[in-house]
Amino acid sequence: MNEENKNAYSEVIEILKLVDDEKKLEALPIEMLEVLKSKANPEYKPVISKEIPLDEQKLEPETYSILSWIAMKYWNEETEESQEELNKEKIEEEQPKVEEITEEKQQEEKGITEEDNLNEETKINSEENSLLPTIHKDLKWYEIIKNKIIELFKKLFKHNTTND
To answer: What is the full DSSP assignment across 97-128?
Structure first.
């Protein structure tokens, strides 16, 4: 095993020390933690900050791979919080439909033409499209996983700093 891989294991251990979510830490088997410690470089002391996003810190590429594996294997993404977010999103998706039906009925009563509605819809759609995130089709699978892990840790660190 090369020195960079040993440093990555040290970085993962240090990142796990910063995770305040007891459930996530309890989900990790002791044997896995022992393997991480046995493969870590005892002479390398990584400096990881909660205040700086992981993707902005100088970490070994292997660190992201290990964190991705841990997240996929031991941390269930469908937590109660994420389920609540999905429910809120569904409600938010349905709300415009309800408003549209209500608006259509009101417009029928007022006699607004369909052409006026189409012009307004086109304007709204162009505004919504400008707010949508850009999809990067050129990303490799490991970059996508890295971005997901970074997103997960941003949520964790954001959630934990609001509780402090």
So the answer is: HHHHHHHHHHHHHHT--HHHHHHHHHHHHHHH
